[in-house]
Amino acid sequence: MHCHQLQQLLVDYIDGELTPELTRDLEAHLKDCVPCHDFINTYRATIKITKKVEPAEMPQELKDKLRSFIREKIDKEKIC
Amino acid sequence: MRGQGQQQEPENHRISSDEDQGLLDRIRNEKDMDAFEELMAKYQDKVWRLARGITRSDSDAEDILQDVFLTVFRKLETFEGRSTFSSWLYRIAANASYMKLRTKKGMQSYAPEDIAPLVDKSDTEVLSEWATGPEETLGSKEALDVINNAVGKLPNEYRVVIVLKDVEGFSNNEVADMLGLTVPAVKSRLHRGRLFLRKQLVNFFQTGIKGREAS
What we know:
The structure holds two protein chains of two kinds. Chain A has four helices and no strands. Chain A has one domain (3-79). By secondary structure, chain A is mainly alpha-helical. By secondary structure, chain B is an all-alpha fold. Chain B has two domains: 17-106, Rna Polymerase Sigma Factor, Chain: A, CATH 1.10.1740; 108-214, Winged helix-like DNA-binding domain superfamily/Winged helix DNA-binding domain (Arc Repressor Mutant, subunit A), CATH 1.10.10.10. In chain B, helix 1 packs across helix 2 (33-55). Chains A and B meet through helix 1, helix 2, helix 3 and helix 4 of A and helix 2, helix 3, helix 5, helix 7 and helix 8 of B.
């Protein structure tokens, strides 16, 4: 396997969706290619950090507002 | 069969469809608003987070949230149950968020073609320890700020995929279904988006390491 082929397979590899044969080839390449090995580590780490992006909490005030908005709209539609 | 690169699939969006079915029946048969509010209470956080993650705007996320639940109420009769209610709802939410982005073209910082040449392995030869270092390095506030800003700078078509897949944990098939894309198109956008984010992190960590070396 060449370095550029590894790039094309990364998404499936990370998701564990490569065939066993391709997984073996890719991992054999990683053992011999330090830049690719390091690259994949930074790629994985990027996904890991992205998952840690703090989910914004929906404010209670907004929940109340949504409830009133929907009630009002639906009541109006019922009248019409 | 899955290989060793297998990543555990997050379960945070897989919610009991039986429980939803009971609520849906009450809404349809009895026009029960309490049941609709229960359904809304169950999903509003996730819809809001998804909309906010994609649009990066509280006010846009609020508009989307209102539109989504109103649409759901109006179209409930057309929901045939071929997918779970949650998939249907998230599809509406993802679509509404994506449409909102497309009407606000001025906000994106990079065009897709600007982030194409990102595969540069020379940047990992010496300075990749951060990626395998202690958890605190990856989870530091500075690193999270970098990634948060970088997600905001992604071209819309990449950001929506990154948020749905890497932040919210939907599968590639689900993302493709939500956005009306092919699975290969989702994977391609995901990869390019990740390359862009990776580049920002590499720059951040390299600057930090060089700064420490200089002092």
